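Re: NAP structure - here you go.
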Amino acid sequence: MSYPATHRIVTAQPPGGPEVLAVENEKLRPLKSGEVLIRTAACGINRPDQIERLGFYPAPPGSPKGLGLECSGHIAAIGSAVEFWREGDAVCALVPGGGYSDYVIAPQGSVLAAPQSIPLDEAAGLPETVFTVWANVFEAGALLQGETILVHGGASGIGTTAIQMAKAAGATVIATAGSEERCELCRLLGADLAINYKLDDFEQRVREAGGADVVLDMVGGEYVQKNINVMREKGRMVSIAFLSGSRVEVDLLLVMLKKLTLTGSTLRARPEAEKARLAAAIRETVWPWIETGKLRPVIDSRFDLDDVRSAHERLDQGAQAGKILLIP
Ligand SMILES: NC(=O)c1ccc[n+]([C@@H]2O[C@H](COP(=O)([O-])OP(=O)(O)OC[C@H]3O[C@@H](n4cnc5c(N)ncnc54)[C@H](OP(=O)(O)O)[C@@H]3O)[C@@H](O)[C@H]2O)c1
């Protein structure tokens, strides 16, 4: 295949609502050592893309231009020193930027073989959520078989992935979501208990269920004290976002008495070598869960890449369950 001269990318300049998104033709730079070019089948949309569009989540220095953190497709070209991949391989990849495109450049260490048990476009919905859940629930949170995890935002892209991965690892799962329909989705994915936080006090319900060893929190605000209250001895709370605010006042007494750990992390800014290490662990442990049907990306909807504004309007409405995909 001849190397494409240009590719379509999505920019957000100046920052703002979905109306600032523009599909542009951009010169495609040559591959550097260790990089591959992916001709995409689909590109995943994530909540951090909305925050970047609004101007609050700048890409790490040196990232490819344009929005987008993940994609799936076929390898169209390989750079020098690429060890694992060949032209034509079906893959999905985590990228630090430029993921909404027909051709995406990815570091070889952040590329995973597309699972054969799901359609190639659906694989675009895996990398960002699987890497995030692995790094936060299984590494930082050290979730063990037989423990209980509380997953907030259970119907989100992250939440739907966390529920399935925790169940596959043999944990009991409690999830929160904002409607009965969204709670039902959590149960279908394996949640043992799903709490509609708009009708029920999740703190009381989780206490009644015996508490949680790990809490995956994307809400912050008043949830932080409640999370501390429901955690069992030596519990771990992992913060990955603060939809209700990151400034909170909490009583740390229970942190001391129950020997709790409060931690958190972000994925995008991690060095490539760190992402390659995560990818190796995911290939080993998580990919077999997909092949055996224990984990599947939940796809909310698909939009043409040229219709990216409509896709972000849906993201802004917050009504999606699972992932929104762009099809180039
Ligand atoms: N730290 C990292 O490395 C990292 C990486 C990726 C994503 N993230 C963050 O993780 C979060 C989820 O990402 P995503 O792409 O999966 O987003 P998403 O699908 O848009 O989901 C956001 C979810 O938050 C829930 N929510 C909003 N306000 C809530 C509240 N007050 N209480 C409980 N739930 C609430 C919503 O569910 P209901 O409508 O059911 O309430 C919605 O499902 C985002 O905030 C994102 O920025 C962090």
